[in-house]
Amino acid sequence: MDALSPNRDDAWLRMEEGSAIGAARRIATALAGERGFDDEHAGQVAVAVSEAASNLVKHAQAGVMLVRPHASSPSSIEVLVIDSGPGMADTINPIRDGYSTTGTLGIGLGAITRLSDAYDIHSVPGRGTVLSMLFTAREAPPPESRSCGLSRPVGGRPVPSPTPAWATSPGGSSIRRDGRA
What is the three-class DSSP state of 23? Predict the structure, then answer.
C-alpha cells in the first residue's frame, strides 16, 4: 500500500504518471479477490479503476485515488478519485459514449457508470472533480449505507475522526446513480 495510507487496508495513490494506473488496477483487483468477487467481476473493477486513473493522469493537475474495503460491507469495495484539475461544468454529457474533449473514443466515464454498482460524480470548474465508485461482489447484499467517512493523512498521521465525504458547493455539477436502489 502507498505511504499515504493511514489504515493498512486503505490504498491512497498519487496519480502523477502512467505507471500509477497499473498500480491502482492491481490493488483494486487484489482487493476484489479478497472480498469474494469472481474473476469476471474483478476484471470489471479493474477496467473501471483503470479508466478513472487514466482520466486523472490525462486531465488533472494533481490527483489521488483511494481504494479500500467498504466500512460496513465485507463484500464491497469503494474507490474515491479526487483531483484538482480543470473540473467540468457538465457531468452529464461526459458519461455518454463517444463524448471526448481530447480526441479519444470517449467511453471511459460511461464504462465507469456501467461497471460500478453505484457511482457519484461532482465537479466544479476551476476547482476539480470527485468521483466515487462502489463495487459489491455478485450475490452479496449491497451495503446498508453508501455514506462513509473519509480521513486524510496529515503529516503522515490520519485525521483523528472521519470527515463526511459528502459536500455541496455552489456552481458545481453533480450526478449520482445507485444501481441497487
Answer: helix
Q: What is the CA radius of gyration of the chain?
A: 15
Look at 34-43, 88-97, 124-133, 153-162 and tell me which has the smallest mean pLDDT.
Answer: 153-162
Stated pTM of the model:
0.73
Q: Residue 50: what pLDDT? A: 93
Q: How many residues does the chain have?
A: 181
Around 105, how many Cα atoms within 13 Å sit in the side-chain half-sphere? 6
Q: Is the pLDDT of residue 27 over 80?
A: yes
Looking at residue 87, the DSSP 8-state letter turns out to be -
Sign of CA dihedral 77, 27, 111, 96: positive
| Encoded amino acid at 74, one letter | P
Integer Cα distance of 19 and 9 in angstroms = 21
In CATH, the architecture of 11-139+170-178 is 2-Layer Sandwich (3.30)
Q: 3-state class of 103 per DSSP?
A: coil
